[in-house]
Design goal:
Length: 321
């Protein structure tokens, strides 16, 4: 009896010391983090959409004193909250310079080359980078991405004009993909094209493909057409210019036509000034779908409606997994 009583007493003591072994589970729950607010949830499910914006007054002079509160962004008609604003001249630029070496622009080649060299020297800042492509029978990377103006100039001066067809869209696509892969995150990506845009040899791409890759890789498109008055002489030349205008307007860049080769330097200077006065707006889209679809964007300066504003007109959402 004494032994049995001793065993019972030991069992009772163990049960009291470890109630979870025999009794109901404890109702105490581990601490949980509070659910994220709406803005944080959007950041977790959406990519940051970057929108380079150029603003100018009625005389065409860049406007540099705007703040985030001055801008309004809409995506598919829905207002978006601006999350960041890159101030003019503060956001690095990644430039792909595309130089046409086909027979159609051979007469102005040397002057165009020299003007492009001066452009690189003026526009390139320590945090910026440049790569050089030639547009000919196939895309060719003449100078890989470099932060050295001297290296970029050497690559540009190594190009020679060739009497060959023009794979224009293939080269634009190649350069856009190259910037998308190699440019630093958060930088502005810019294609500057010196060409008449006369496509006659691309094997894989057409205008719609070039537009898609420019938008998917967040690229601005600037075009300088050196043919001047000769632009209206044939249907191919007119179409080439219209294609370049379409790419520039869709991405927030600009297409120039130069009447005299001596005007090239002024055009390069205008592009330089615009890039140095450009804003970079960022927002997290309220549309969380990862369907790879195209989203239309519109940007306005609400408090100063007299200003002229250029920006990309849309972007491609991430694709579904």
């Amino acid at each position: 009896m004494r032994l049995s009583s001793l065993v019972i007493s030991l069992v009772l003591l163990l049960t009291l010391a470890q109630p979870n072994l025999c009794g109901p589970q404890s109702q105490t729950k581990p601490a949980q983090n509070p659910p994220p607010n709406q803005d944080e949830a959007i950041r977790l499910t959406s990519r940051l959409v970057m929108v380079p914006v150029s603003a100018s007054d009625a005389s065409g002079r860049p406007v540099r004193d705007l703040t985030a509160e001055d801008f309004a962004i809409e995506e598919e008609g829905r207002k978006q909250a601006i999350a960041s604003l890159g101030e003019p001249g503060k956001v690095p630029v990644e430039i792909a310079l595309l130089f046409d070496v086909s027979g159609s622009i051979r007469g102005q080649f040397t002057f165009e080359q020299q003007a492009a060299v001066r452009f690189i020297k003026e526009v390139l800042k320590p945090a910026d980078a440049v790569s050089v492509f030639s547009i000919g029978i196939k895309p060719r990377l003449v100078r890989a991405r470099t932060t050295s103006g001297e290296e970029a100039t050497t690559g540009l001066m190594s190009i020679a004009p060739l009497a060959e067809p023009t794979a224009f869209f293939d080269t634009v696509v190649e350069a856009a993909l190259y910037l998308g892969k190699n440019a630093d995150p958060g930088s502005r990506r810019v294609l500057v094209v010196i060409s008449d845009g006369e496509e006659n040899y691309s094997e894989r791409n057409k205008l719609s493909d070039a537009l898609r890759e420019l938008q998917k890789n967040d690229c601005l498109f600037y075009a300088i057409n050196p043919t001047g008055s000769g632009l209206s002489l044939n249907v191919v030349s007119i179409k080439g210019q219209r294609d370049m205008e379409s790419m520039s307007s869709q991405t927030g860049g600009k297409a120039f036509v130069v009447d005299k080769v001596t005007e090239l330097e002024a055009v390069f200077r205008q592009i330089t000034e615009e890039l140095q006065a450009q804003y970079l707006l960022g927002y997290y889209s309220t549309d969380e779908r990862a369907d790879g679809g195209f989203r239309k964007i519109s940007v306005h300066v609400t408090k100063r409606p007299e200003l002229r504003v250029r920006s990309r007109q849309g972007y491609y959402a991430p694709g579904s997994k």
